[in-house]
Amino acid sequence: MKLYLIRHGQAVDHAATDSLRPLTEKGNRQARDVGMVLQRLGVQPAYIFASPRVRAQETAQHIGTALGVDITTEDACNFDFDISKALRLATQGAGEDIICVGHNPSMSEVSSQLVSARISMKTGTVVCISLHGRHGMLEFVMPAKLAKTIAGHTDG
Fold this sequence. Notes:
The protein is built from 5 helices and 6 strands; from the N terminus they run E-H-E-H-E-H-E-H-E-E-H. By secondary structure, the chain is α/β, with parallel strands linked by helices. A 6-stranded mixed beta sheet has the order 3-2-4-1-5-6, sandwiched between helices. Helix 2 links the parallel strand 2 (47-50) and strand 3 (71-73). Helix 1 runs parallel beside helix 2 (54-67). The protein is globular and about 40 Å long. The N and C termini lie far apart (35 Å).
């Protein structure tokens, strides 16, 4: 099975609370581009799990729309996301691919731990890992800029 870890798209700097920070227009485009590229790659996850924070929900919604998959809000994808939570969510997929949308530094840390290599995820980055028990093999890292290029956008 493949585990796709995605850091939410770019969000506004300030809102009433951190949980309510929405995506910027750039963040919305990043999420749409990621969804489009994953759809072109034929990704069909059993689940898309997303942190309850607005920016992660909005990112996941764009991806879910592109893939035709409903979003499941999952507290495990919040700031305290860790390898045990990632593996627990993976078992819910029953061997099928899953997507987790969340935040840094935990998304980068879990990616790094699973593949035993340092991975740093900027906003809108996708990390694809083939899971084998508690370990994984890195399939690809797709930064938002690469998704933008693949999606065919040339605007700023």
